[in-house]
Design goal:
There is one protein chain. By secondary structure, the protein is of the alpha+beta class. 32% of the residues lie in helices and 22% in strands. It has 4 helices and 10 strands; from the N terminus they run H-E-E-H-E-E-E-E-E-H-E-E-H-E. The strands form 2 sheets. Strands 3, 4, 5, 6, 7, 8, 9 and 10 form an 8-stranded antiparallel β-sheet that branches. A two-stranded antiparallel ribbon has the order 1-2. A hairpin with a 3-residue loop joins strand 8 and strand 9. The longest helix has 35 residues. The termini are far apart.
């Protein structure tokens, strides 16, 4: 009788062990599925149930600024219009055929008149539109030229040429203190040199008036 009881007890324990082992396997399977639902791949990429999609997904695209101007002259007119009576100074703009008093004017760049803006003649063929704003009493106090490049690929080389031309110029009437070049959406570049205080004010007005502008050159002359 005792042997039968012992045999039954042993059989019961074996059944319990087998049952626990089965539960362990089931748990392992369930846990594996749960883990797969939260798998992380790459640096921070998440896949499975917790993947980020829809409105909160990051695409890496940047906002594109649509210019609200169509010419170099419009850019300068917008900026100059923000000057108060106290900030403004005597200026004129444009070339001999498009002279404007007390404001910017269209400037037809040629090899013969590029020196008035210290614009490099090597870049003239890459420009199809320009405007100027110059201090009426002394160009070295304030001279600004805005240029439209035909091709975006020419902008960087063009700006470097403008910088080199201005920094290597031989000054006669007064000595400009600072050079700033600013890019604007639509393949535009704004180059201005002269008195540091006047340049600083102009730079601030460009950045606050024309969306998407960026200072790419800011250097002392001399």
């Amino acid at each position: 009788m005792k042997k039968i009881a012992a045999l039954l007890l042993a059989l019961t324990m074996m059944i319990s062990i087998v049952a626990c082992g089965g539960n362990s396997d089931d748990n392992t399977t369930e846990n594996s599925i749960t883990t797969e639902g939260n798998v992380t791949t790459g640096d921070n990429a998440t896949t499975g149930d917790n993947a980020t999609t829809g409105d909160n997904a990051t695409t890496g695209t940047e906002d594109v600024v649509t210019p609200d101007y169509t010419s170099s002259l419009e850019i300068l007119e917008k900026v100059w219009a923000t000057y108060s009576e106290e900030e403004a100074f005597s200026v004129c703009g444009g070339d001999a055929e498009n002279t404007v008093m007390n404001g910017p004017g269209k400037y037809n760049l040629t090899a013969d008149n590029a020196w008035n803006l210290n614009f490099p003649t090597s870049q003239i063929e890459k420009i199809d539109d320009a405007a100027s704003l110059v201090h009426m009493m002394n160009a070295n106090t304030f001279t600004c030229g805005t240029y439209h490049f035909k091709n975006e690929a020419d902008i960087e080389a063009g700006i470097n040429a403008i910088k080199e031309t201005i920094l290597s110029a031989q000054w006669i009437c007064g000595f400009p203190e600072k050079l700033v070049v600013i890019t604007a959406p639509g393949n535009y570049a704004i180059a201005v040199y002269g008195n540091a205080e006047l340049i600083q004010t102009f730079q601030g007005k460009v950045l606050s008036t024309i969306d998407g502008t960026e200072v790419v050159v800011d250097t002392v002359i001399g």
